[in-house]
Amino acid sequence: MSERNRIAVVGLGEVHPPQGMSQRMSASEAARLAIADAGLQTSDIDGAIDLRRTGGGGDRASYSDTFTRFGGITNAQFYFTIGRGGALAGLATAAATGFLDRGLAKYVLCVAAVDDWSKAEESKKHGHRGMSHAEKEGYWGKALGDLRAASHHSWMAARHMAEYGTTSEQLGAISVAQRQWACLNPTARMYGRPITIEDHQSSPWVVEPYHRLDCSLISDGAIAFILTTEDRAKDLKQQPIYVSGQGFGEVNDGLWWEKKNLTHMAVPKARDLAFAQAGITLDDIDTAQLYDCFTGEVLLQLEDYGWAEKGGGGKFVASGATAPGGDGIPVNTGGGLLSNWHLGDAVGFAEAVTQLRGHAGERQVKDAKIALSTGHGGELVSPSMCSIHTTTILTAE
Amino acid sequence: MTNETVTPWNKPRPNIDTDSEEFWEGLKRHELLLWTCKECNASYWPKSFCINHDNEPFAANCEWKASSGYGRIYSMNRHEYAFHAGFKEDVPYFYALVELDEGPVISSTIVGEQPTDPIRDIGRRVRIVFEDHPDAGFTLPRWELVSE
Ligand SMILES: [Zn+2]
């Protein structure tokens, strides 16, 4: 591990539900909670980053220009938006690292908010399902029937099934395992609602091969976290959780003709960089928070990181390896986007911090010291979807 | 082959911009245009640059050329929900990502004879069908299964 002054997560705030809260309100409340959690004052925050999704239902500049003013973050010397699809926390952390390393800020507030649930409810009144239905510049498919993330993300699962014989029941095992985790998490949306493989199989098709229970939730809520340097972190209220390694990958190295895109994610470069910085190997990871907009993404990442061989992910998850008490790797221990709630990679990032602090209650992974948190997203220009992959290694020591 | 509909367009409109305008004009003439390199004949879609050469100015060595219109299903799904009200009469529909013989991948629905299964029929041969919507001002590409 390098001798440099590492970056640490020192405050965490999470607001969800209630549903029906505006983004600026929930973002401000999450920020307030994170600042209090760190034992800091609002006036200590001298930089702010707004985690904004792009593509999909994300919109770029709605409340974003007002956040620091609305939230009373008056001492922020810089404030900007960052994000690529669901890849939010990983990018924000890397950006904040630059400012902190250079002495441009002492305490950076990162905040993300979402009101997809409210938007989807509004959309239903017009007879649609889901959020935005306007075709954006350079996009393809809405006029033809490629309408939402499930419309093209399900191609990944379909291609994996055709190529490797993966089954819907195996994807269901991912859904069931994460629901088991959610049932240990009192704040998860699906707490108290266990499911079986049979429930997964009998849940309606949304876009075959995806059943309803292969798809992530639509949520309202916000997450904020505070980053500072290791030397400052030691004096604060909470045990610092260190950002020990980060790496980034792009799957569209080969532009639109890169068909490997459908059965692989841009993991290798991101993983190798992050692992090398943290000085770890795969076996050192105690829990993995893998981006799970759909079950297929979890399957692909389990293979791409190396917990299973390519094509062998189905068997791996069917054995219960990722579930509570499993013998593989505890995955998405808060329930993930499938069963906890959805605010991009910020949900897994927050869960990783919670686990490493030892604050995860009944779902606590014993002696969790090293956590992986991944992000995924990007423009949905069919078929080069969600080309970014982010790897963040968080450590308790 | 033409597949003309007369109902008013009640779905999202496609994005047609300066990069894709010629492609959409080609569809109206029932040509599936691919952005093709004049030097090495490599094909791209959407408009891009040729990876095999220097590009000065950007993408200058390429032009739009008609595709054979044939390819294979690379991946596929079956939509059971109408996410947009305009698709209520269309569900369930098969939506396929097609790998053209020239290389690029383009997605659309399957018209005519329907596949039996979104997974098992991956790999099947298809060809382009042009669906004219003169009132809406565009022609849409669709795919149809062909036997080998
Ligand atoms: Zn060329």
TrEMBL record, chain A:
GO molecular function (one)? acyltransferase activity
TM ranges are none
Among its keywords, does the record have Transferase? yes
Q: Which UniProt keywords apply?
A: Transferase
Spell out the protein name for this chain: Acetyl-CoA acetyltransferase
Q: Which InterPro entries match?
A: Thiolase-like, Thiolase_C_2
Residues forming the Thiolase C-terminal domain are 258-382
Which species is this record about?
Nocardioides terrae
UniProtKB/TrEMBL annotation, chain B:
Against SUPFAM superfamilies, the record matches this protein to: Nucleic acid-binding proteins (SSF50249)
Q: In this protein, which residues make up the domain named ChsH2 C-terminal OB-fold?
A: 64-131
Q: Which Pfam families does the entry mention? A: OB_ChsH2_C
Q: Which PANTHER family match?
A: BLR3430 PROTEIN
Would you tell me the protein name for this molecule? ChsH2 C-terminal OB-fold domain-containing protein
Record the organism: Nocardioides terrae
